[in-house]
Amino acid sequence: TLTDRLSRLVKTMRGQARITEDNVQDMLREVRMALLEADVALPVVRDFIARVKEKALGAEVVGSLSPGQALVGIVNRELTATMGEGVSDINLAAQPPAVILMAGLQGAGKTTTTAKLAKHLIEKRKKKVLTVSADVYRPAAIEQLKTVTKQAGAEWFPSTPTDKPVDIARAALDHARRHYFDVLLLDTAGRLAIDEALMKEIAELHKAVDPVETLFVVDAMQGQDAINTARAFKEALPLTGIVLTKTDGDSRGGAALSVRQVTGVPIKFAGVSEKIDGLEVFDASRHAGRVLGMGDIVALVEEVQKGVDVAAAQKLAEKLKSGDNFDLNDFLSQISQMKKMGGLAGLMDKLPTQMAAKAGQADMDRAERDVRRMEGIINSMTPLERRKPELLKATRKRRIAAGAGVQVQDVNRLLNQFEQMQGMMKKMKGGGLMKMMKRMGG
Ligand code: GDP
Ligand code: MG
């Protein structure tokens, strides 16, 4: 798996301070394999690797990260950016009824997604929604839309299998207009593979109803071929968005990357179950972790990068050098840094398995709780007390403990830890601060 591969590389790259032409090659080869394994199409992989390489070369490796870990971070950010960041809900900026056209291969999930979107638009956007099926080839498909539309709480416009799809669409649009619907969702016939006649038909449907959204529905489990499907639909229709279905399956969902790159339109939603409420706004960063097959570790690498606040450490070092006292405010900022690094330093050594990553997460959660408690105690002190902890006698301690919702002995424990660190700070006068942070973190 990618996790094994990367962790092997992470080990070999330990002790090197930078990502260089030399050490990046092996690493990128592994990333390339991982993306192919996740079914990202080859040309898309090639482009992607080139971009990552450019970003990675010469990148500074932050704090306690090895170049290998840093590269995982870069790969993850680039993946997230490629699949699109941010939220992009359905566009309804049109004269009502706004038409949404569903396109995609048979079995991709168009009919199911039509109902899911209807529910979403009713509940989240307070819209009056009508659905219609132009799938005249399979009467069962029309019935299926009727059933799921009812579940969604939307209205369904009957279609007659002997009518032409374009006529059905026009009739539904007319009905929607006359009955003041805000949205018309137009479900279309399945294509088993890209089929000229059906492509022509959906292009005509598009012309007839002028949709504000034309959504390409694609199965996350579709393999290398997703890129060709996407290309064909993009040529036939001006797509405005993608819905990635069946992300609850066990595929790594590399299709998302291919489809997004080929169509250039945002992935708006992800299908997360067969049920009518199984639709979520697409989360690119979460999906990136999944494509890489190491979501937990990626998340933790990100944490380290956030956690190691080099600037803050330097500022403190300056302050101590200038002879200022190390006070409880400084303590608080140090504590939160060390806790972050502590959970992580331990984790990084255990990197090989996802299990270890999960244990690392538990450590981090505990560390975070500790930090929050300490923060609570220090926040219950007056600014004067934080600068001059020697003022803290029994009465003040009781007041602080009550304010923070802890026991007096918790306040005492915190003050003990503070004094220990203050002692060390005095000895070091700020020199070697980063080093010490790392040691304590481990
Ligand atoms: P269509 O041919 O494109 O209209 O596809 P359907 O909407 O009929 O869906 C095909 C199958 O995929 C059905 O069994 C759906 O229940 C299932 N399906 C659709 N979306 C999802 C999803 O997000 N998760 C899961 N697990 N199943 C889905
Ligand atoms: Mg269908």
What are the key terms here?
442 residues, alpha/beta, Four Helix Bundle (Hemerythrin (Met), subunit A), Rossmann fold, 434 Repressor (Amino-terminal Domain), eight-stranded mixed beta sheet, elongated, disordered C terminus, binds guanosine-5'-diphosphate, binds magnesium ion
Explain this structure:
The chain has 442 residues and is of the alpha/beta class. The protein has 3 domains: 2-86, Four Helix Bundle (Hemerythrin (Met), subunit A); 98-281, 3-Layer(aba) Sandwich (Rossmann fold), CATH 3.40.50; 310-441, 434 Repressor (Amino-terminal Domain) (Orthogonal Bundle), CATH 1.10.260. 60% of the residues lie in helices and 9% in strands. It has helices at residues 2-12, 21-37, 42-56, 67-83, 110-123, 139-152, 165-178, 196-209, 226-236, 255-263, 284-292, 295-307, 310-321, 328-349, 354-379, 383-387, 394-404, 408-428, 433-441; strands at 98-103, 129-133, 155-157, 183-187, 213-219, 241-245, 267-271, 279-281. Strand 5 (213-219), helix 9 (226-236) and strand 6 (241-245) form a beta-alpha-beta unit. The longest helix has 26 residues, at 354-379. The structure holds guanosine-5'-diphosphate and magnesium ion. Guanosine-5'-diphosphate (GDP) binds next to helix 5.
